[in-house]
TrEMBL record:
Alphabetized Gene3D superfamilies for the sequence: 2.60.40.740
This protein's name: Conserved repeat protein
Listed InterPro entries: Chlamydia_OmcB, DUF11_rpt, EF_Hand_1_Ca_BS
Record's keyword terms, sorted: Signal
Signal peptide range: 1-21
Length: 891
């Protein structure tokens, strides 16, 4: 095999597979580590490291084939003295970026003569000949993985005598890196006055579709100085044999054609054992079976200048994958000197090698499970309710021969106005907003079409199949937008599905409207009274309901969930809601309607009503009525209780709201208990001016509010985990006259402050290396070549003053790299602590993994309690450090 040339120290030692699948030059390999942990206050935290970026550098590498030395040339051509010879080569860019290969020829020193008029041509159609318009070149520019055919044409000196030869070498030099060369491509031209047959080959088209036909044509002439003899071929007789091994998988189904300037032409084949006359087709290539043209004759029957041509057609398999190649070389055997064999130099001639590549064909097919064919299929759902989401499961299949992605679109809908249809992944949850794939040939992917029907549209009664609703799902090839397929998703009937029953607790859904209204209640001004209510979904669809109330001006209503449906406010009091959230058909949710009477409400009977309205269909609702009989009292509230964390030393600020629900102004004195540890508590009415206490804070009547700010100053030296509770008290003089410091109303709020500490700092660096005995390529990891190693170093350190627990460090294996190894060390941990490794963050082992897929993450933790896993019992003390070294290789 042709040796590969690489740029850089040590790259010659890389595996061949690395060279053949190199990461393209200029690719950025990015990597960032992360960590999760629990801080000293018991709160889960996450942090990330800095990002490290490595840019892949260009490797310059190419091959020129066929190979050969001056003493053993890779190809030999014969011609008359003064005649022309042609040598065929293939130049391939095996590097990872575009490069220009400079070409030159070198005359031999261990031969009889120098060749004349040497020229290099680019053989654009790779037919082994120089055709009109094909350019003379001194270089070829090739992208990554590309190749070019070139032909070297030269003339044998007229003074050469028969049997003398001249050697010529085609050399190449990378323009990107002149140290990368190829100089072992020697060829030999032999001067002869005997017969000399040439052989050039074409194979068209060079790019062929699966199931397509390739036409192979071998042609040549006797360019020597005398007539050619035939050789004896067992099974055929004596003649000139042009043979071609049929490429594996290709099938010859029609008889070949051909002509010759002398002799008798017949068509033959080789079955792996003997040659025989071709009478039966087809022939399928298996690496041995060959087809040929036999030109029979006796003596020196093929004169100087006589020509021949031989053509046959072969069909590519219909399932041939895109990119499959069929390389093919023909061989001509004749006798130049009349000794009866073709063993002498120049008597067995190989043509140039042709290569045909299977083109990509693209064809999406979309249908539904059990019926996926090219064409429009229809799947039917019999019925669905208004406001319901109806789902259709569809399957997209790649019927092309190459990986392809497909754009999914919806078209020609006949659903009612207001219907919203969308395409989702197989889980029915993840929307598909772009192309799916790429899918390999024959692979499938499920796509779910979900249509949300308008709540207000339904057939009543259903009309069977008279009306149908449908939408077409179309799959279009990304690589060839002219290729598409579609399937129809159809719904037959849309039925009504929304109703609601709101009633006093225990009576919803019983079908008796006479017991729905709650009993009346009595309240003081500023008091809240509670009405237990049940909301029952009497429809056929899952629905949610907006909860509203009608109360006298200035009154307020809040609806609280009653989770256990016992008609009593839950403890602790849940957050109020205005919507029930989803309720399944036949389901019930319970609520407490909390009606707050304003502080200035006059005594008497006040009508109150509650309504549940469908959030989907606003015309669906139910209302119950009751009344509240009002007294008059004064009331103030100081809310809410607050909690927070702070470092030592540190500062934290809380806010509270003083609410006056009285029917007169409130003048309140605000004081703080100051807690148990001598911390400083400061109060402010505006967040700007701070005091030890506040006096005569005014709150307007009938729900007037005042914000109270509390600032906590924590001194240094407080231990982690210390908790201080401050009680904020509002003592209020409620009066319409001059305040007399007689407190008619009092309320408190609490502030719970916890000292926390501990912070995990995550830092990352990288170094790239070259060679099996690593030599530093880039000390900061910013550059690397394919095959280089990159060591990522991640350092996690507790820079706080408290213990951290459940510390897990994660680092993904970057794209374009292959995992090699990982190892971690620690400092500052308790004696006996053990480093553990994981590939999923759940299962842990003291042994690092031996293989990790690209894109998968590796994890490191330290087991301090000896239970063989990483959990909340594993402690990372202050100043403790974990150092992880992750080694990957650039692909």
């Amino acid at each position: 095999m042709k040796r590969l040339k690489f740029l850089g120290l040590g790259l010659m030692a890389l595996l061949l597979g690395v060279a053949l699948a190199m990461t393209p030059a200029g690719t950025s390999i990015t990597n960032q580590a992360s960590a999760s942990y629990i801080d000293s206050a018991g709160q889960p935290r996450t942090t990330t490291s800095n990002q490290v970026v490595t840019v892949v550098q260009q490797v310059y590498s190419f091959t020129i084939t066929p190979n050969g030395t001056e003493s053993a040339p890779g190809q030999t051509k014969s011609a008359l003295p003064g005649g022309q010879v042609l040598f065929n080569y293939v130049v391939e860019n095996t590097g990872n970026g575009t490069d220009t290969i400079n070409l030159a020829t070198v005359q031999g020193t261990s031969d009889n003569f120098d060749l004349l008029s040497v020229r290099i041509y680019r053989d654009d159609n790779c037919n082994g000949a120089v055709d009109a318009g094909e350019p003379q070149v001194t270089s070829v520019t090739l992208g990554m993985g590309q190749q070019a055919c070139v032909a070297v044409v030269a003339t044998i000196p007229a003074t050469a005598t028969s049997g003398q030869y001249g050697n010529l070498n085609l050399t190449g030099t990378s323009q990107g890196n002149p140290s990368v060369t190829d100089a072992d491509n020697w060829a030999r031209a032999v001067a002869t006055t005997q017969a000399a047959l040439t052989a050039t080959k074409s194979a068209t088209p060079s790019n062929v579709a699966p199931g397509g036909t390739v036409t192979f044509t071998i042609s040549g002439a006797n360019v020597g100085g005398s007539a050619a003899y035939g050789v004896t071929i067992p099974g055929l007789g004596t003649g000139i044999l042009i043979s071609d091994v049929i490429p594996t998988g290709l099938t010859v189904s029609t008889m070949p054609t051909g002509t010759a300037g002398a002799g008798t032409v017949s068509f033959v084949y080789y079955d792996g054992t003997t040659w025989q006359t071709l009478t039966t087709l087809p022939l399928t290539g298996n690496g041995t079976v060959a087809i040929g043209m036999f030109i029979s004759g006796s003596g020196a029957f093929f004169p100087q200048g006589a020509q021949y041509t031989f053509s046959f057609q072969a069909t590519v398999p219909a399932n041939a994958p895109a990119g499959a190649t069929y390389a093919n070389t023909a061989v001509v055997r004749f006798d130049a000197n009349g000794d009866g064999d073709s063993n002498d130099p120049g008597e067995t001639v190989s043509s140039n090698t042709t290569t045909n590549t299977v083109t990509a064909t693209y064809q999406p097919v979309v249908g539904y499970p059990g019926n996926i064919t090219l064409g429009n299929e229809t799947q039917v759902v019999a019925s669905a309710y208004s406001g319901q989401t109806v789902s259709f499961t569809n399957v997209v299949r790649n019927d092309g021969n190459a990986p392809d992605s497909f754009t999914l679109t919806l078209q020609n809908p006949t659903f009612p106005a207001g219907t919203v249809c969308q395409i989702y992944a197989a889980d029915g949850i993840t929307p598909i907003s772009g192309a799916i794939g790429p899918l390999n040939p024959g692979s499938t992917q499920t796509a779910v079409v979900k249509c949300l029907l308008p709540a207000g549209y339904f057939e009543n009664p259903a009309d069977g199949t008279t009306t149908t609703y449908k939408v077409e799902l179309k799959a279009t090839s990304v690589n060839d937008p002219s290729k598409s397929d579609l399937t129809t998703d159809q719904l037959t009937d849309i039925l009504p599905g929304y109703a609601v029953d709101l009633a006093a607790h225990g009576y919803a859904g019983d079908g008796n409207a006479t017991n729905d209204n709650p009993a009346a209640q009595t309240a003081n001004p500023g008091q809240t009274v509670y009405f237990p209510l049940d909301t029952y979904n009497a429809g056929a669809n899952t629905d949610s309901y907006n909860l509203t109330a009608s109360v006298p001006t200035g009154w307020s209503v809040l609806f609280y969930p009653d989770a256990n449906c016992d008609g009593v406010m839950d403890t602790p009091t849940p957050a109020p809601v205005t919507n029930t959230g989803p309720i399944n058909p036949g389901g019930t949710k319970c609520y407490i309607a909390a009606v707050t009477v304003p502080a200035n409400a006059t005594p008497g009977s006040n009508p109150v009503s509650f309504t549940a309205t469908s959030a989907t269909l606003g015309t669906v609702s139910d209302t119950v009525t009751t009344q509240v009989n009002v007294n008059l009292v004064a009331q103030v509230l100081l809310d809410p209780d607050r909690a927070g964390t702070v470092t030592s030393p540190g500062t934290i600020q809380y806010t509270h709201t003083l609410i006056n629900n009285s029917n007169a102004p409130a003048y309140c004195d605000i004081s703080a208990s100051g807690g148990n540890y001598g911390w400083t508590y400061q109060l402010s009415p505006d967040g700007t001016s701070w005091y030890a206490a506040l006096g005569d804070v005014y709150a307007a009547p009938n729900g007037g509010t005042q914000t109270i700010y509390v600032r906590v100053l924590v001194p240094a030296g407080e231990p982690i985990g210390r908790v201080d509770v401050n009680t904020l008290t509002a003592q209020c003089d409620v009066t319409t006259g001059t305040p007399d410091n007689i407190y008619e109303a009092t309320d408190t709020a609490t502030e719970t402050t916890t000292i926390v500490g501990g912070e995990l700092r995550l830092q990352k660096s990288a170094v790239s290396y070259v060679g099996t005995t690593p030599t530093v390529r880039s000390s900061d990891g910013s550059q690397a070549y394919p095959g280089d190693y990159i060591d990522y170093v991640i350092v996690a350190e507790n820079i706080g003053t408290g213990n951290l627990t459940n510390v897990k460090i994660a680092d993904p294996i970057p794209a374009y790299t292959t995992f090699l190894s990982m190892a971690a060390t620690t400092t500052g941990f308790p004696s006996g602590a053990t480093v553990l490794y994981s590939t999923d963050g759940n299962a842990w082992s003291p042994t690092p993994p031996s293989s990790v897929a690209t894109g998968q993450s590796v994890y490191v933790g330290v087991d301090t309690d000896g239970n063989g896993t990483i959990d909340a019992n594993d402690v990372m003390p202050p100043a403790a450090r974990i150092t992880l070294v992750l080694r990957v290789q650039v692909q």
